[in-house]
Amino acid sequence: MTTETTNTGSAYGFDNSTPDAADQVDLLAGILDQHTFGVLEGLGLPIGARCADLGAGRGTVALWLAEQVGPDGHVLVIDTDPRHVPAHPRITVRTGDVAALKLEPDSFDVIHERLLLMHVARREEVVQRQAAALKPGGALVVSDWATDHLEDMFAAGPDDIRQLFLTFQHAFVRSLEQGSGMDSTWARRVPDVMASAGLVDITSVTFNQLWRGGEPGMLLHASNSRQKQDLLRAAGMTDAQLDQLREAMNNPDVMARSWPMHTTVGFRPAA
């Protein structure tokens, strides 16, 4: 694995250097990898392919791609803080801001990004640049959560926990929207943005799960509550409420649906 550094500048919703970050990226990989691998496998990735994994988190998708492309293939990882990405001989890691970086045109068979563009400024322009970086016939794969229908999430549990959960969700999402410019509706807008960028044969699938207390998805909520604790306090949540929420996220009698993840795939027209 080789490592490069590029200047960064954009704010991002989470910090990979915090004590909870390693657990967070592990939880996200456990929740989402099988969905992601299934989508990528459906592309029929050629041996020797050149891929990019942007905002790689734990690096599990980059590792999966590196194993698929064979000895002559390559995976470029770009992340503002790629400390959690493990080494692999076919992976090059670049520290940088995806919103500012210009990828080499006509270079990639697949560009993948998960839970990235919803947090990135000028995301429409970023998609335009990424579309140009694809080889003819190459695929752009964008996965993001839609976080604007929070009332639909809670599935089972006491009424006071339902209200507490919704209070937390609204405060959490609002803090990301105001603090780092997260777009809660972006995931559903991706097909239109891809079409405007000249991509074709666009498809989209929605991934949703029911989570029970103690399972990775509910533990992710607890992790988020710790990472954004100061902002949640500023939004009016008390320490007692946060403690009660975290306890509930470990209670198997409490269930909630995940935010719906929209995974959209678009292809650069073949030459």
UniProtKB/TrEMBL annotation:
Pfam families: Methyltransf_11. The keyword Methyltransferase applies. GO terms for biological process: methylation. GO terms for molecular function: methyltransferase activity. The keyword Methyltransferase applies. This is Methyltransferase. It comes from Winogradskya humida. Keywords: Methyltransferase, Transferase. Residues 53-142 form the Methyltransferase type domain.
